[in-house]
Amino acid sequence: MENLGKNPWLGIVRHHDSVSEMLRTWDEGHYLTGSPATRILEQYLSGYYGGADTLVVDKGRNAVLATVLALTSTGDLVAVSTEIYPGTKNLFKELEARGILKVLWFDPLTTDIFAMMHSLTAEVKMCFVETIGNSKTMPVIDPDTYTADCRNYLVIDSTFTPLWVPEEYQWENLVLIGSLTKYEQPEDEAAGGRISASIATIEKIAKFPLFANFAMLPSTAEYYLEHVAETKARYEAHSLAADELARACLKHPAIKSVYYPTLTDDGVLEKWYGGLGGGVLYIVPKGGEEAAKKIADGVVNKVDWTIAVSFGSNEWRICPFVGPLAKYVDEPGLTRISVGRQRNKANTDTLMIALDSLD
Known about the structure:
With about 350 residues, this protein is α/β, with parallel strands linked by helices. The chain has helices at about 20-25, 35-50, 60-70, 85-95, 115-120, 145, 200-205, 220-225, 230-250, 270-275, 290-300, 345-355, and strands at about 10, 15, 55, 75-80, 100-105, 125-130, 155, 175-180, 195, 255-260, 280-285, 305, 315-320, 335-340. It has twelve helices and 14 strands. The strands form three sheets. It has a seven-stranded mixed β-sheet with strand order 3-9-8-7-6-4-5, with helices on both faces.
């Protein structure tokens, strides 16, 4: 045990060389919130997102929770986009229901964002959006519109656009968060999240009393260090495959609607995100719920298809919002597809055959 002073990282429990040292560090918590691997991973991500400091946590949802709780106080008002990941939306609803926060919901598709940001007073402590909304309509935000007159914390979830690097001038009030569970690894081997912001903001989040509960395990950080450098290649592969599949579905007579960012881009996607829309799309078959079920059952376990929700894997995943899930959507038969990055033609052909069976 004599090496503890030189290397205090022994698992997650904080060890001490003496009682006096224990008392001196008592308020820092009984568990360590970092490791050598964690620090290296954070430094790597900080270097990628130039002008920022970075923290990593155990999952994407906790990147949201840690940021929101650390930068707001009980009863604060926050402005939140309606077009975000359902899990994040439920988190804000829960915080609102418990009286922890007040939430001003806004629709980014119909709201004059510039006017809204200009009108937000000091009473609104935070604005929360996603670069590409993890919802059916998948709205793409223009960062300039949100940051031009931002006097409050602006928290942007960039899970769908992990390659976007904000300009340095935007970092004063900006907090960039995201899941590391998607394109940052080859398969679903680990879970993690990232928080990037100015040094002052990161220090505030790290000092939040509950932050230690969100620590990433050293083994997880070591795993990400082996794979995070290939994020760009994986993301591009997923995006190109999704764009190709979306356009193929758009031409099929059995399909009523297709939602994918490149299909409706007005230049924002190209300007800020390299024209890449990520690996998720939504389709709506003309036959509604019954057709959606037939499509999913028609592709499952063929080539790389499986019925699942998450994205970023080699697998091609399909999730029809049917039965009890139908209450979450506004179009009967809405189906989410998360493309993989292998055997694109074989997997696309498999879906086309399933669609042909509906005619």
